Structure formats: C-alpha cells, structure tokens
Amino acid sequence: MKHTNPESYFDALEAHFNQLASAVAQGDAAALPALAEQVQQLAVNLNDVWQEWQQQSVQNEAMTQRLKSLAEGLRLVRTNLLRRTALVEQALKLIIPASVDPTYAGGGAYGAGPRPSGRFGVISA
Fold this sequence. Notes:
Shape: elongated
Helix content: 55-70%
Radius of gyration: 25 Å
Low-confidence stretches: none
Distance between the termini: 85 Å
Mean pLDDT: 79
Number of strands: 0
Order of helices and strands: HHH
Oligomer: single chain
C-alpha cells in the first residue's frame, strides 16, 4: 500500500485504527489479530516515511496533532484490551479454578508459613 501524500496515509491509518478500536469494543476476537497486524504494519511504515517527510519539510502541525491523537487512541485501545484480558482471566478462574497456579507456591492466603531455621528442636520422650 503506497500513499503519496501525508493526508492519504493518515486517512488509511485512522481507518484501520477505527476498525481495530471497534473490534476491541465489540469483543470480536476473530478480527483482532488481522486488524492489529494491519495497524502495526502501517505504524512501521509511518516511522519510515516520517523521516522522509522531515527531510522534505512536508511535516506540519496538523500531521503532528493527528499523530498525537492516534497515539492517545492507541493507549485507550490497549487499556480496553487489558480490561478484557482481566475479565477473561476472572471468568477462567471461576470456570476452572485449578488451572491457575498461585504466585507463592505452598502457601495459603498470606503465603508460605515460617521456614525452619536449621536448628533441631529439643526432643523429649
């Protein structure tokens, strides 16, 4: 996909980004990998052409503002993905509680009990 001017490039990036944000909001797990890959590829390409635009002095304040708004939107999409991940993990814990390993093995709610110091206690009969 070759975009000759910055406006068409940003339009394509925003269109793909909006599709990704919509898929996250709707919980469309099947479409997420393809849409995320497209947005990632466009972002990588943007990084490449951004250098060219700086050398050609094509870059202006409107482009910088569009880039900042895309970065803020991407932060929000990432937050929504993390929220969905937490919900899925909670549901998984409810359905299959044994599938989750505790962080501190061998302990109860507050971790493991006291460890032996290596001394032998007094043994009496």
